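Journal club prep — side note

Before the paper discussion, L.F. wants everyone to see what a predicted structure for a comparable chain looks like in token form. Sequence:
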Amino acid sequence: MQELRDRVDSYIDYYNSERYQWSLKKMTPDEFRSHLLAT
């Protein structure tokens, strides 16, 4: 069960920090969030 939790956590980190998304102007969710807070 711990291995599954680790894999899910790893994917969530990848999704939010490394995966570019077309709907967010080719930014990662973390980059987009920072962009919104800066404006």
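L.F.'s comment for the group: The two ends are 42 Å apart (CA to CA). Keep this in mind when we get to the figures.
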